């Protein structure tokens, strides 16, 4: 104790200050430190929960991104398939139209060929009739000079029949 006195320390005062410090420490611990620790624990827990939620949200976002990419790929494939199908249908329709046009052109050509043949036959028939008439007229003139009427008629009929049976 002599040493404590020599240093100028009052032991009673030191003990009183230690007791006061302990009382103050107990009061601060109970009134301030524990509520602060509780608040800090709550915040720590809330931060941990937020971190977990953020990780879960990141995982969900990643999963959603993957699903979105998958859906976009499927939609792209479906769109390409639809385009290919439309191209194929257009090509088939084009072919059908071309075939129908060719058939129509062929039928028109056949019809016009038939009409031309008919007109040709009719024209040859008219020419035959005119030639026959000219031959008959010329024959009449010749026969009148040389034959009788009976012979003339018979000859005319024979020539007409022969002209009708022959083709030009």
Q: Can you describe what's shown?
A:
With 168 residues, this protein is mostly helical. The protein has one domain (2-165). The protein contains three helices and no strands. The chain has helices spanning 2-7, 11-146, 149-165. Helix 2 (11-146) packs antiparallel against helix 3. The longest helix has 136 residues, at 11-146. The protein starts with a helix and ends with a helix. The mean pLDDT is 87.
Beta-strand residue fraction: under 5%
Instruction: Give me the Rg, rounded.
Output: 64 Å
Estimated helix fraction: over 70%
Indicate the low-confidence ranges by residue numbers.
none
Through-space gap between termini: 167 Å
* Outline: rod-shaped
Number of DSSP E strands:
0
Q: What is the tally of helical segments?
A: 3
Order of helices and strands: HHH
> Which structural class is indicated by helix and strand composition?
mainly alpha
Average pLDDT, all residues: 87
Q: What is the makeup of the main sheet?
A: none
Number of domains: 1
Brief synopsis:
With 168 residues, the protein is mainly α. Helix content is 95%, strand content 0%.
Key features?
95% helix, 168 residues, mainly alpha
Topology (SSEs and partners):
Layout: H1 2-7, H2 11-146, H3 149-165
Helix pairs in contact: 2-3
């Amino acid at each position: 104790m002599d040493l404590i006195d020599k240093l100028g320390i009052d032991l009673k005062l030191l003990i009183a200050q230690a007791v006061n410090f302990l009382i103050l420490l107990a009061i601060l611990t109970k009134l301030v430190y524990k509520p602060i620790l509780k608040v800090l624990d709550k915040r720590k827990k809330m931060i941990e929960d937020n971190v977990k939620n953020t990780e879960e949200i990141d995982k969900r976002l990643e999963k959603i991104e993957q699903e979105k990419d998958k859906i976009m790929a499927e939609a792209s494939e479906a769109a390409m398939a639809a385009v290919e199908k439309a191209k194929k249908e257009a090509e088939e329709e084009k072919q059908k139209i071309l075939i129908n046009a060719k058939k129509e052109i062929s039928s028109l050509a056949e019809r016009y060929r038939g009409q031309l043949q008919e007109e040709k036959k009719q024209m040859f028939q008219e020419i035959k009739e005119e030639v026959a008439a000219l031959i008959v007229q010329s024959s009449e003139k010749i026969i009148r000079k040389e034959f009788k009427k009976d012979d003339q008629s018979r000859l005319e009929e024979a020539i007409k029949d022969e002209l009708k049976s022959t083709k030009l």
